[in-house]
Write a structure and sequence with these properties.
The complex is a heterodimer of chains A (about 280) and B (about 260). Chain A has about 280 residues and is α/β, with parallel strands linked by helices. Chain A contains nine helices and ten strands. Chain A has a domain of about 130 residues: P-loop containing nucleotide triphosphate hydrolases (Rossmann fold, 3-Layer(aba) Sandwich), CATH 3.40.50.300. In chain A, helix 3 runs parallel beside helix 5. The longest helix of chain A has 17 residues. Chain B has one domain: MetI-like (MetI-like fold, Orthogonal Bundle), CATH 1.10.3720. The chains are: A alpha/beta (about 280), B mainly alpha (about 260).
């Protein structure tokens, strides 16, 4: 209903949507693994525009999730520069929300308590808190389930609840780490549509990691394609289609073919990836 | 339709009493058939009569009161200390390294093996009994607390970090609820162990308590009194455990439970 009007509102001219610019410069991440240094991410440069929906796809092991953890501030040990609206990312912050692949709701709290838990650091009246919680539960379409415990919710509902919890702080950037990866295909399609609606009604920048190219293209203003060994962004695809989108759009299918071709072509360096293993054995 | 469901529930409940009834029947048949001398295998009626006598004289209530008081003290001290120990060992690797060998070794020694030493140290007064019950209650709680705290998924701490949860809230709203299920199952085991050891200790050395009542009955060849003790021990132990399970269900009502299991 009001989706279309929102779509019109979401233009770069809108100053209210101006915050949420994320900048990554020459980001490099190394792990010490088995007393060997393993470069997980290297030379990573990325500019995420305010209010943008950016999808990141890549083969498993390309460091997608590591990248998201760095942006979230769960891991501070990296080289290079990550900044949100000009200030360097250090530690976690309520400005950066995160939705995990598993919903990670606390089983001993009701849906309402789980969402309110995100506001634990916020100084606000109980009434304001309740209102925020109620609004965000409504936003993800779970009104009426406020008192339900997580075990009473389906996988899709739990993931909606996790999105509500992540959004209740109105973060500048919402990070989504394969949020629908554990759901069945039908629920996934349904939640993708829902996420599009939610994104259009919020001002947040969203960065979503996925291994589902359809999902990446359907939601993303841009799709960053990553490659592994070491993890880096190969290139960024512009998806020049207005939201809300039609899954059947020919452009999406054309782009999907391109991206899939690229991801499967990177099979070649896989043999190279085996090398460290053999080397480790001899060393 | 609802009548059918009630019938089903009654049926399920009557199945539960079937096995005690069968034992009672076998007992009755055996004693009536005089397979054993009646002074040895006393009849259920004689036991019931002795129960009536002991209740009327207040003797049973006095012994039971003494026993339960010891249980309360020993169990509280033991499982409380177990909780603290488990927490410390889970949170501090140094503490764990320091005490683990001693803990594991002491755990393998039966409580009753400490009785001679404890009698020499504490005499046969209350302290001795409370110490031995506390020892029995300590280990299950300590172990389950240790495992419970260590087993809290890292994932939940990450959620807490994302929302910048302050430490007190982290402890009260995440750490404690996450460990409660494991801790409670250890405490339940502690309670059972404490009750068993209490009765056993009273059988060996005591001047009062349900175990001592049984021991006196044995010495005076009053096996009806002994049997009253056996039945009371079973019933009290059963009631303690049932009560604890109900408490557990109440505290953990957020957990998925099979339909109808919640009391």
């Amino acid at each position: 209903m009001n989706i279309d009007s929102r779509a019109v509102v979401r233009t770069p001219e809108q100053p209210a949507l101006r915050s949420g610019a994320l900048q990554l410069k020459e980001v490099r991440k190394r792990f010490l693994f088995d007393q060997r240094e393993l470069t997980v991410l290297t030379g990573l440069n990325l500019d995420v525009h305010p209010g943008e929906f950016l999808s990141i796809v890549g083969p498993s092991g390309c460091g997608k999730s590591t990248l998201l953890r760095l942006i979230a501030g769960l891991d501070d040990d990296y080289e290079g520069h990550i900044a949100l609206d000009g200030s360097r990312v250090a530690g976690t912050s309520l400005e950066r929300g995160l939705v995990f692949q598993d919903h990670r709701l606390f089983p001993w709290m009701t849906l309402e308590q789980n969402v309110a838990f995100a506001l634990i650091r916020r100084d606000m009246s109980a009434a304001a808190r309740d209102r925020l919680v109620r609004e965000h539960i409504a936003l993800v379409g779970l009104s009426g389930f406020e008192q339900a415990y997580p075990h009473q919710l389906s996988g899709g509902m739990s993931q909606r609840a996790a999105i509500a919890r992540a959004l209740v702080n109105e973060p500048k950037v919402l990070l989504l780490d394969e949020p629908f990866g554990a759901l069945d295909a039908l629920t996934r399609v349904h939640l993708q549509t829902e996420l599009q609606r939610i994104w259009m009604s919020q001002g947040s920048t969203m960065i979503m990691i996925t291994h589902d190219v359809d999902e990446a293209l359907y939601l993303g203003d841009r799709v960053a394609v990553m490659q592994a060994h070491p993890g880096r962004i190969a290139h960024i695809v512009d998806v020049d289609l207005p939201h809300p989108r039609d899954r059947a759009a020919p452009l999406l299918h054309r782009l999907k073919d391109d991206i899939l071709a690229e991801l499967t072509a990177t099979d070649a360096p896989r043999s190279e990836a085996v090398v460290p293993l053999t080397r480790r054995r001899s060393g | 339709m609802s009548a059918a469901r009630i019938d089903e529930a009654t049926l399920r409940r009557s199945v539960m009493v079937a096995s005690p009834l069968a034992v009672l029947l076998a007992w009755q048949v055996l004693s009536a058939a005089r397979v054993f001398p009646p002074e040895v295998l006393v009849s259920p009626q004689a036991v019931l009569a002795a129960f009536g006598q002991l209740t009327a004289s207040g003797e049973l209530a006095r012994h039971l009161g003494e026993s339960l008081q010891r249980l309360l003290w020993g169990f509280s001290i033991g499982s409380g200390a177990g909780l603290l120990f488990g927490l410390a060992a889970a949170l501090s690797p140094t503490f764990a390294r320091l005490f683990d060998p001693l803990f594991q070794a002491l755990r393998q020694v039966p409580v009753l093996a400490f009785i001679p030493l404890l009698i020499l140290l504490f005499g046969i007064d209350e302290v001795f009994k409370i110490v031995i019950i506390a020892k029995a209650a300590f280990f299950p709680t300590a172990l389950s607390t240790l495992d419970g705290v260590r087993g809290v998924p890292k994932a939940w701490f990450e959620v807490a970090r994302i929302y910048r949860t302050p430490l007190p809230s982290l402890v009260w709203r995440v750490l404690i609820p996450a460990t409660v299920p494991a801790v409670l199952s250890g405490v339940r085991l502690s309670l059972t162990r404490a009750w068993l050891v209490l009765v056993a200790a009273e059988l060996i050395v005591a001047d009062s308590g349900i175990g001592q009542m049984m021991e006196m009955g044995r010495q005076m060849f009053r096996l009806d009194v002994v049997m009253v003790g056996v039945v009371v021990c079973g019933v009290i132990g059963f009631a303690l455990d049932r009560g604890f399970v109900l408490l557990q269900a109440r505290l953990l009502r957020w957990r998925a439970q099979p339909a109808g299991a919640a009391a």
